[in-house]
Amino acid sequence: VIRAKAVSFKEVDSGNDIYGNPIKRIQYEIKQIKMFKGPDKDIEFVYTAPSTAVCGRPLDTGGKKEYLIAGKSEGNGKMHITLCDLVSTWDSLSPTQKKSLNQRYQMGCECKISRCLSIPCFVASLDECLWTDWAMEKNNVDGRQAKHYACIKRSDGSCAWYRGMAPPKQEFLDIEDP
Q: What is the pLDDT of residues 101-155, one digit of tens each?
């Protein structure tokens, strides 16, 4: 997970398919601003498919847009992204999301976020947070929970949605107020 700007791009070959045809990828040269989670080495290049029709994720290379990118790192300065990976402009993130990247999300690395696609939903264990944006906000993947809450591990070992500065309380958090 990195914060970065894309500065240039070019089409490159990345091997051949089973029929011997070359597989094209777009290689973005990036300027990494911050590594939130990943290898010790900076990411220099981000690769994606050449179009959204084959799950490619285009980036603006004007050097003005900053992105939050969560992709698959090879650990050698290369990262791969698809339409299924989290790629958001930095300016589109809420203040809570920005703060959580630096401080809170790390507290939830041992927690599992379970998607709730339709009500009713239940967690299977105490180390889960139930993500309800999809079910409660008409298939919205970027809803109130995503923008304003973080799933973190509490002192008793359970996980819960948290918003604010004080440590989370032990009380159960209702699905209506994640």
A: 877 777 777 888 888 888 888 888 999 988 888 777 665 566 778 778 888 888 8
SS3 91: helix
Q: In what order do the strands lie in the sheet with 86-89?
A: 72-73, 78-80, 45-48, 22-35, 2-16, 66-70, 86-89
> Quick check: 159 and 124 in contact, CB under 8 A?
no
Superfamily of domain 94-174: Tissue inhibitor of metalloproteinase-1. Chain B, domain 1 (3.90.370.10)
Does domain 2-90 sit in CATH 2.40.50.120?
Answer: yes
**Distance between CA atoms of residues 121 and 90, nearest Å:** 31
Global confidence as pTM: 0.71
Residues 96 and 92: their CA atoms lie apart, in Å, by 12
Angle of CA points 38, 56, 142, to nearest 5°: 70
User: Do 114 and 131 touch, CB atoms closer than 8 A?
Assistant: yes
The pair of three-digit structure tokens given for residue 32, joined into one six-digit string: 């990494």
Amino acid identity, position 138: K
Domain ranges of the chain: 2-90, 94-174
Token reading at 52: 């959204």
